[in-house]
Structures are given as C-alpha cells and as structure tokens.
Amino acid sequence: NFKSVNDTLGHPTGDALLCDVAQRLGDACAGGFVARLGGDEFAVILPAAAGQPARVARSIIARMAEPFNVNGHRIVIGTSIGIALAPEDGTEATALLKNADLALYKAKNDGKNGFRFFEAAMDAEAQARRALEVDLHDALVKGELELYFQPLFSLAQSRVCAFEALLRWNHPVRGMVSPAQFVPLAEETGLIVPIGEWALHEACRIAASWPRELRVAVNISAVQFRSATLNTVVLQALAASGLDPARLELEITESLFIDNVEATLASLHALRRLGVRIALDDFGTGYSSLSYLRAFPFDKLKIDRSFIVDLLEHDGATAMIRAITSLAEALGMETTAEGVENIDQLDILRAQGCNTIQGFYFSRPLPAGEVMRLLTR
Ligand code: C2E
Ligand code: CA
Ligand code: CA
Ligand code: CA
C-alpha cells in the first residue's frame, strides 16, 4: 500500500527498507562511499578507480529494480540518478551535490530508472524556472491569469453545446505564457491548487452569465484532484455563481489511475454526487486501460488530438475512432474529438459517430468577452 519510499518513512518498514537500499547501493558501488541525504535520497561518492560512472549507475538501477522483501511486504521501487563529476562540475561538496541534484531532477523528468550527467545548461534552466515560479506566485494576486473558452460543437444539433475553459497567463514582460509551460510548473510547486480553485470559480461565474444554458468544462490537474479540498471548492464555486451543477463538467486524465485506483474511484463518485459531469480527457494516450471505463461511468470521453491528426495519414486511425465511439456509445458515454483542424477530419468523425468536435476548424479558444458576443449575436 506504499505509494512511494517517502510514504514508508516513520513506519518500521521504512527504516528496514532504507537499510536494504543502502546495502544494495554499497554492493553496487564497491569502493564508493554511501550516505543518506534524507527522505528517499542517497549520495554516493565514487573514486575514479570505481570505473565509468555510467556503468556504475546502470548497475545501481539494475540492482534496485529487483523487488525488496521487507517485513513481509514486497516493495518495488524505481531509481533515478544524477551525476556530477569532479573537478569539471565543481570541486566542493556543496557545488557537486547541487549539480548532481539538478541532473537528478532531469533524470526524474525523463521517467523512472534512468540517470543523467550534469550539464551547464541545466543550471541556467533551473534559474529560469525559479524566476518563472516566483512570477507565477504573483500572477494570481496581480490578476494576470485569464480564462479563454473554446467552443465544443455538437454535430447532431449543428450548434455550440459547451465551452472548455483554458488558462492564459498575460505576463507583463514575457507576454502570453502558454499553459503547456506554466501548468506543469504549477503542478510541481503545488500552486495549481489555488490556481485551479480560481479557475473553477471564474469558469462557473462566467458560465452563469451566458444567455444560454451551455455547459462549461474545467480541467482538473492530478495534483488538484488529490488535494483534500477539491469537493469543497467545487461546491463553493457552484454556490457562489449559482450555476446548475449539471452544467459543470470536470476534465480529468488517465494519469489519476496509475496508482491508488480505489481512492481515485471514491473521489470520482463523491464529485459525481455533487451533480457535476466527469469527462476523461486526452483519451487514448498514456495509460489507457479499458478497465477504467468499466470501473467508472464517465459522462464523456475526449479523444486525444493525436488520433485526429492521424486520421488523414494512417488507415488504422478511422477504425480506432470507430472503436472508441462504439465503445463509448455502448457504455452510455459521449465523445468529443479534440484538435479538429479541417473539414476532412470533421467528415470522418461525423461518419464514425463522434458526438461533438472541438478544434481550430470551428474556433480557437476565445476571451470571455468574445464568447458573450458569439452567444448574443
Ligand atoms: P487540453 O486540456 O488537452 O486542452 C486542449 C488544448 O488543445 C488547448 O491548448 C487548446 O488550445 C488546444 N487546441 C484546441 N484545438 C486545437 C486544434 O485544432 N489544434 C491544435 N494544435 N491545438 C488545439 P492550451 O489552451 O494551450 O492548453 C494546454 C493544456 O494546458 C491543456 O490541454 C490542459 O492540459 C492544460 N490546461 C489549460 N487550462 C488548464 C486549467 O485551467 N487547469 C489545468 N489543470 N490545466 C489546464
Ligand atoms: Ca523522491
Ligand atoms: Ca482538457
Ligand atoms: Ca485534451
């Protein structure tokens, strides 16, 4: 039941596990010096005689990949390694550790069970990230965040049936910063929780002012989903705006199902009880498993843009769309195709039974004022 090594800390199993990890580390880098830095992090100092650092790193990763048996628990852990070399990356312990840590950060971003050597560019990148992070902190307070709304077009009704709220950051110096850039940063720093709360309130407030009772979809990041306050925030946003819960759709992604499936399902059901709709975003990427669809009755599947791009290029893509729309229909779920850019894609999607389309072909995301003009004209 442990989600991470950090979860085991303070538990007798954690102490025993860390001893075993240290033991294996010692075995994997004979002649080296192993120390625990804290939490689930270790430092290894290798003399030049220990051989190629890359070889040692691979050997550490291979050894750690074998499951641990601790107090009757079978524990599988992943390892990420950052490497700094003396003297080129620093001659003092603090500088070497800092640079190894930057490389570790990169290695983790690449995915589990990998290693990276420190590169000078990592330092510059880390500084840029920190600067952006400081700015993002202020963005909310200074009112630099804004929601744009992209229409979803119903193929059956031939009209707009909903809007997806998408974050925009108008930075006074940097200009428009893309959510692809700042949402991941906000997730890492936890800022996504207050930002997401603001987005929910703002989306509900604006949707409540529309002259037609259209739905509004709001993206919920995994970090925000796991925060204890999401239910309360959704309730407050609905209450403050007076928006009918049935008009609010929360978009979540499959990444929530990587671990803790039980807890994820419980939270989804709790949200559903508030009367809001739940859509599965970016469907078909990453961790797709049909078992999620059986485990939770989503209101909608949003077919990822990558499938739509493929439509005109691969023969199999149309069959794939067909399979998804048939499955969704059989399970009583709607389908939205994302990233529709031309009429050819639209024609195929219509023929394959997709319910709604969203994409530049119909409209780009629009500022709230333009949405109002669109709805009142
Ligand atoms: P997403 O949820 O998959 O949103 C769809 C993205 O595709 C949007 O990018 C949209 O502008 C873009 N898009 C729509 N139609 C087309 C098209 O025809 N062609 C192409 N190439 N792109 C199209 P955007 O607005 O840059 O947002 C990127 C991502 O940032 C979103 O992907 C979502 O994951 C995240 N995001 C945006 N707003 C929020 C938010 O309020 N909260 C959270 N947690 N994440 C957000
Ligand atoms: Ca860690
Ligand atoms: Ca989305
Ligand atoms: Ca999407």
Structure description:
Helix content is about 45%, strand content about 20%. The chain has about 375 residues and is α/β, with parallel strands linked by helices. It has 2 domains: about 5-120, Reverse transcriptase/Diguanylate cyclase domain (Alpha-Beta Plaits, 2-Layer Sandwich); about 130-375, TIM Barrel (Alpha-Beta Barrel), CATH 3.20.20. The strands form 4 sheets. The chain has an 8-stranded mixed beta barrel, surrounded by 4 helices. The protein has a two-stranded antiparallel ribbon with strand order 1-2. Helix 5 packs across helix 6 (about 180-190) and helix 7 packs parallel to helix 9 (about 230-240). The radius of gyration is 24 Å and the shape is elongated. The structure holds ligand C2E and calcium ion (3 copies). The site of ligand C2E has 22 residues, from strand 8, helix 6, helix 7 and strand 12.
CATH hierarchy: architecture of the largest domain: Alpha-Beta Barrel
Q: How many domains?
A: 2
Alpha-carbon distance between the termini?
Answer: 56 Å
Radius of gyration: 24 Å
User: Which percent bin holds the helix content?
Assistant: 40-55%
Oligomeric assembly: single chain
CATH class of the largest domain: Alpha Beta
Counting DSSP H or I runs of 4 or more residues, the number of helices is 15
**CATH topology descriptor of the largest domain:** TIM Barrel
Number of separate strands: 16
The structural class is alpha/beta
The main sheet orders its strands as 7-8-10-11-12-13-14-15
Question: What fraction strand?
Answer: 15-25%
